């Protein structure tokens, strides 16, 4: 069974050093790489029991059985959300309960026990609070939060692990330049990301390593990323390796149905609502490649990319260009969403959750 | 980046305690659970470099970055093979180079660097030798060997990890009772295990946690395991969660093609050869469920199950029974294969590799 390295001294949350407002980071040059912070959160739970409260420990390597479910059989889920620092110095989370619920769905699919929605949100808040000096200044970026739920107990034959670990680590990340340039996507007409009855609809670690090669190959050809088609027909679009996709034609905004093979993105769900607020008709339905190629505007959504315009789409030898710039719906939606997240406009949806400092 | 806990003292391979011939295990009651042994093997390699020789360290938890490729994105492969103790006290491996080659194919698919075939086999030998007192007495079981190749370096955005770890641990396991009773399989008509272009053809950890729930559900209904169908048509059989499948009718033995979605089992390959030696016509081809239900005899092959007869097959409401017992081909093949593995007959194929004690 996994046992984590104990901190040599208990977390000292109020020492002099920690009182400084910001960590020593060059905030102007944030990318999307790991910057280790002070603390991570760890909780454990035996199979058949429930999670009790975990604890903050110094960020660092964990100790785990070579025979654990995650190392041998890929029994693991992750989540991704962000903490935002507002102009008036509050620290806010965007719909963290949605990530907690998604982790529960995933845990059920992978036969794991998950923390409750309440435990999940509380743990996120605690972790962000302990690392608050790592939340970038307003406008410079966000604190990316990465919760993991893994089968940490030892299991030799294929089965669910006897122990699960819920872990949260964080890293400051930069903002994506949304307006300057768009994504250049390649439709992958050969490989599928997910299949019916599989794990495509949950944030299982098993969905990601299999697409790294396809991403690498596309990047080597100058593309930003890959757009996958459905495994059942090979005719309909599904999603990009780490974000959902929308197409716009006239007054209609369409996005693929979350019918089991694509991730129900929290940004996707929020953008759907904002587009309706703007008077667009939003359809969740099957979208063929033909329709994709005839769209006026295409954009992607996700916690990392927020809302990002697609500039070009390539399918076999055909390459189409989409509308870009200030007048596009994606620019409007990006601005609406980030204004809410940064606390620049009133949050009438009840999406933002403030962390008591 | 991952750093492994260093042993407090260097491995002492020749101390008095180690000189005892057998470890303190109740050899009569071996199952398929983990029995920790003395040593494991660990080697590391940075992305873009090659593996150099690893080392034996005491078996125990490893230390790994919470941000590693394996914990977040399922970047990991495993292998499974066995060491056999012969009546004349030699210790033998069965075709270990095949496992090494399969790990290379998998590493390529998941953008990892793999040890060479030679390094792989050498490391296996070293690990078994260091744990030789854990190899069960002849007839009591085998030493199961579990090599892992994992993305151990830290990576935040989805990409290949900057460091890989090759690790081998072992555990004594019992023999499967092949003749007493057969498998009762359920054809899963809803869920697929793999899809074209996916990782079904390699021993990626990502193929296993997604099927645990289906196995659990089948077991709750009294079945031994699940037989999956192909994702493309849903009409042809592929494989069971951890073994390959064969059907027999008259003089023809058939097994599904390894065309990208099923694991090319080493037992499958060996059994194919032995069946040909027995004068059977062996076909690797698409096999429909209809044909499966009309077969005379059905059996599964794999390192863990060796060759095991299927007693019943259930598809929707239809349940068929197959030939069982001493006269079946599977009984013959099981005996031929295990006689080679145990050193009871001459190994004319060059399959067995002896470990110099
Ligand atoms: C495959 C995939 N699709 C879509 C998304 C977008 O989801 P969300 O908006 O919840 O971040 C993600 C994760 O960010 C993802 O990994
Ligand atoms: C999915 C799957 N199929 C088949 C097999 C059989 O392969 P082998 O005969 O090499 O053990 C295994 C592993 O044992 C497996 O995991």
From TrEMBL, chains A, B:
Cofactor(s) needed by this chain: pyridoxal 5'-phosphate
Ranges in coiled-coil conformation: none
Superkingdom field: Eukaryota
Signal peptide limits: none
Recorded family membership: Belongs to the class-IV pyridoxal-phosphate-dependent aminotransferase family.
The protein's name in its UniProt record: Branched-chain-amino-acid aminotransferase
Transferase found in the keyword field: yes
Native organism taxonomy: Eukaryota, Viridiplantae, Streptophyta, Embryophyta, Tracheophyta
CDD domains named in the record: BCAT_beta_family
EC numbers: 2.6.1.42
PANTHER family given in the database record: AMINO ACID AMINOTRANSFERASE, BRANCHED-CHAIN-AMINO-ACID AMINOTRANSFERASE 7-RELATED
Entry keyword Cell membrane: no
Molecular function via GO: branched-chain-amino-acid transaminase activity
GO cellular component, one term: cytoplasm
EC category: transferase
Post-translational modification N6-(pyridoxal phosphate)lysine, affected residues: 203
Catalysed transformations (reactions): L-valine + 2-oxoglutarate = 3-methyl-2-oxobutanoate + L-glutamate; L-leucine + 2-oxoglutarate = 4-methyl-2-oxopentanoate + L-glutamate; L-isoleucine + 2-oxoglutarate = (S)-3-methyl-2-oxopentanoate + L-glutamate
Entry keywords, A to Z: Amino-acid biosynthesis, Aminotransferase, Branched-chain amino acid biosynthesis, Pyridoxal phosphate, Transferase
Record organism: Microthlaspi erraticum
Record GO biological process: amino acid biosynthetic process; branched-chain amino acid biosynthetic process
């Amino acid at each position: 069974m996994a046992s984590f390295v104990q901190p040599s001294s208990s977390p000292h949350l109020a020492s002099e050093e920690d009182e400084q407002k910001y960590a020593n980071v060059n905030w102007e040059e944030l990318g999307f790489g790991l910057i280790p912070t002070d603390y991570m959160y760890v909780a454990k739970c035996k199979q058949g029991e429930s999670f009790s409260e975990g604890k903050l420990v110094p960020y660092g390597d964990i100790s785990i059985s070579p025979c654990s479910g995650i190392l041998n059989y890929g029994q693991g889920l992750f989540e991704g959300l962000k903490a935002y620092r507002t102009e008036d110095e509050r620290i806010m989370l965007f719909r963290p309960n949605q990530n907690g619920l998604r982790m529960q769905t995933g845990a059920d699919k992978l036969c794991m026990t998950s923390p409750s929605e309440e435990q999940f949100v509380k743990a996120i808040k605690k972790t962000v609070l302990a690392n608050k000096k790592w939340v970038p200044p307003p406008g410079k970026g966000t604190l990316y939060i990465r919760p993991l739920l893994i089968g940490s107990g030892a299991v030799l034959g294929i089965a669910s692990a006897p122990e699960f670990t819920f872990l949260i680590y964080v890293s400051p990340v930069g903002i994506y330049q949304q307006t300057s340039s768009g994504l250049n996507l390649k439709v992958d007409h050969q490989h599928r990301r997910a299949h019916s009855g599989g794990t495509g609809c949950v944030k299982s670690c098993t969905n990601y390593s299999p697409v790294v090669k396809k991403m690498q190959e596309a990047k080597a050809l100058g593309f930003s990323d890959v757009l996958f088609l459905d495994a059942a027909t090979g005719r309909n679009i599904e999603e990009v390796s780490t974000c959902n996709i929308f197409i716009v034609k006239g007054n209609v905004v369409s996005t693929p149905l979350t019918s089991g093979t694509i991730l129900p993105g929290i940004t996707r769900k929020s953008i759907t609502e904002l587009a309706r607020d703007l008077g667009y008709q939003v359809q969740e339905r099957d979208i063929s490649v033909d329709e994709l190629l005839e769209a006026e505007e295409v954009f992607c959504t996700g916690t990392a990319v927020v809302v990002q315009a697609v500039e070009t789409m390539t399918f076999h030898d055909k390459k189409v260009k989409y509308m870009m710039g200030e007048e596009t719906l994606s620019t409007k939606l990006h601005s609406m969403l980030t204004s809410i997240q940064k606390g620049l406009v009133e949050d009438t949806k009840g999406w933002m959750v403030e962390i008591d400092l």
